[in-house]
Amino acid sequence: MYSKKTAHRGLAGSSQPSVRSFTTPTSSRWAAINTQNALNPPSAYNPPSTLQRRSTGSGVGSGRASGTISRPSGTDQRPPFPIGPDENRGVVCAVCDSNNVNRTVGLAFVNVPIAEAVLTNVADTQCYQGTIHKIQMMEVSRILMQPTPASSVQSGLALRPHIEEELRGLPIVERAKPDWSADDGMLALQRVAFTEDLPSLEVAVKDNFHLLCAFSAAMKFLTDDMGIDFDDHSVRIKYQPPSDAMMISLPTIRSLELIQNSINSSSKDCLYGLLNRTTTPMGSRVLRSNIVQPSTLAVVLNPRYEAVGELVHKDGLLDKVVEALQKLKPLGDVERLLTKLVILPKDGSIYESEQAINNILKLKAFLTAIPDVFQSLSDVSCDLLLEIRSNCLPARADRILGILADTIDRDAAYATKPLELRNQRVHTVKPEISASLDIQRKLYEDFSRKIHDYVNELEDEIRVKVALKYTATRKFYLKVNAKDFGPQGPPSVLVNTTTVKGAIECQTLKLMGYNERINEAVHRAIVESDEVIKSLLSQIRPRVSTLFKYCECIALLDLLASFATSTRTYAYKRPLIHTDSYALVGGRHPILDSRGHNKCIPNDYFVTEETRFQIITGQNMSGKSTYIRAIAMLQIMAQIGCYIPAESACIPIMHSLFARVSTDDTMEQNQSTFSIEMREMALILRNVNNKSLVIVDELGRSTSTQDGLAIAAAMSEALLQSNATVYFATHFSELAKALAINIGVVNRHLRTVTEYSESATHVPVTNMLYRVAEGPEPEVSYGIALAKAVGFPATFIAHAEKVAAELRAEAQASKRDRQEMEEAKRRKLVANLVRQLKLAYVSDAGDEELMEYLTQIYDDFCAKMIGSIDDEDAIVEEDSNENESDDEGDGQHDGAEENMARVARKGQYAVRRPSDLGLFGGGTDDDVDDYDDLYQPGSAANAIVIDDDEEFDEDHMSDMEDMGNDYSEEMY
């Protein structure tokens, strides 16, 4: 039995027998994570000293100077990761730009933690918004750039000033020109890419000079400066065409709260929080990436819809898939685990050896779970789920498990509790492979048994119940109830005592001695196991592509299961991808909808060529902002392959999404609300096109009313010219009236109802219906309503209402040109006819149904067009009487009257030229004459005559479509 003095002397001064040199766990851990810290710099608010020094690495055979890490100058030190929290920070980005008017940029993103590289190229604009957006979406930790020529800076062609301005706080590492070699980039790609991926990758990148230069610089930086060396054929390399993903601007991601709630960063009230029902970190990462970069490929989205539908509707399928995925949850991020296997180690620290054993045990558990995933998909029928199942064949996993079985003990399994994990580390390698390992294992077992025997002896000695506890830092320690000792306190044999919640945690000198000897045995066992594990890893690395394929399939399956869970929970419906139509019936804001179906009022969304610019008006708190935000979020959900909260949906694919909805001042950037509005609208106007969805909420309200209206009108005109789909919420009723004559503009409003009472003391109450309605917001005479409520005489109220109506009529007459409005109305009718005929042309309806539909749209068009002509002729006749037109003019008018009568009798289609061709580009008198020759009322060029005994057939339909197209072309 140890005396206090002997035990103390033995622990403090005894020399330890050496088996193999190794560093202490603490220092080894620091050395091992040093590289990871360099790849994951802290926030720019507290930059580490390592980012402010010069790198010491040098290029292999290049003789180049060391790279310099610098931060862009400026007072703003905002964090370089503005989207939201994410565990994925080890992304290095190399940027190679052409420095000329072509503005071709090659980008190489190497995500070190998951051993993945994404290569892309951007044909950018003058401000390099495409490049900056891509960097923001990938959330890089640092940017590699080549020296910028002075001539490019002076000419304004340089990319670096734009990156420094837009991505402040992000370290920029300048690399010498020899690092940027297309030949070296191709060689690096051929060395590290998966063998099965090489043929397609070589075809995709062989002519992308700037892309290969960027990849060369990225790989040299990782090898020379970061000490990261990937094994051969161990990196997933993906070529991503720039057109395959929707562009969502960073302000849009923030303002729509796609990834993070703007008020509470830990709240799940954001799109990512709503849809994240994933089980694995891989699935969560794919979901996040999809939300900020939705797909623009129908061949990607439609298979996802089918897979989600099958998971939802096939009995028991979703539950089996989720149950299989749950078995992978304790393993954490398997992709990061595989990365640790393929990065060749630089030293032999105890910490790295321990982690290698842990990784082997996790890998064994991962491969053991693959058959369960495969079996859960045994009854699937859709192509995507069948593809996932075929890529999860257990046979390939069994081959790798066979390699593990030759070295790893059959009962060894990954554990999460510290003591169990230590036991598994010691017993991972099978017995009789290493004699010295077996000796250390025997010592470990003997001392562990002695500790338990000693605790039993200690209980008898101090006559209280003693619990043996273990943590990774304190090792074995004792825990006793403080009340068991009474007022005299614990005996002197117990040292290092600490009272925690009525219990005494302590040790004894003898227990500390046992801990020391067990630690020694564990370290020696790990050192002896290290060579065996290294040999095992060298056999597994050539098969790492199979393991990464498993991870990709599981991540995609996890994503689809998450979508299916949300669909089943909230009764989502499948959207249909269509090239022209935009029809959403009963659409609901997904966040509000998740709080309860009764709290979210559904609304319809319809967009055609005639309604692509929708001005949304309404009172404050009527739901305008929610209405336009909902369409943006539903568009994103549809383009990530998820069902959406709507009764039915037909949605086109959008290539970009922009939102100007937030109105917060940014004091740290010295930017006012108005300044932010102008910056974000400038970004939108530079990038918007006919494949864009734009939502704008109350633009111009942060300045004076006059200036705000002028700015809103000017920007609305610019958005109109882009042919984008726009939802424009505003309080400027004048804006809706001014733009009403343009083709594509419609005004809708959010309905409200005001309740009145005959009681003089009752104040009128306005109820928000949160439903959209056609047309402008009704003008309500609140003064008259209040007068009625407080009891004015009925005759007074009636006269006041009559006068108010007359004044409104006069105001309308003075603000609008009726003839111009009628002409605009007819143009919309013709454009709508063309759209309907095109839809009918591609329809799958039967002949009878199609003929009935064509007859109906023909009758509707004729009725509306003749009504429009009647209205305009009434105006023309009124003007003729006032101006006393000459005889020739009267004759022409009479001819028009006769022609209209003939149209009414025979059901013809007739049109009149617009009163002002200059409205569409400044037509001349010759243009007007040419127009009259082509579209003279009653001429064969613009009339289809169907006699009473004739049937409407395909020839008539073709004639109508040709005339509609001709008329539309002439109009524009």
Automatic annotation (TrEMBL):
Q: Does ATP-binding show up as a keyword for this record?
A: yes
Cross-referenced SMART domains: MUTSac (SM00534), MUTSd (SM00533)
The top of its lineage is: Eukaryota, Fungi, Dikarya, Ascomycota, Pezizomycotina
User: Quick one: a GO biological-process term for this protein?
Assistant: mismatch repair
Renumbered to this chain, the Polar residues biased-composition regions fall at 13-40
Against Pfam families, the record matches this protein to: MutS_III, MutS_IV, MutS_V
Which stretches does the entry tag as region Disordered?
1-87, 915-951
A cellular component term from Gene Ontology for this protein is: nucleus
| Family label | Belongs to the DNA mismatch repair MutS family. MSH3 subfamily.
What is this protein called in UniProt?
DNA mismatch repair protein MSH3
* Acidic residues composition bias: residue spans: 924-933
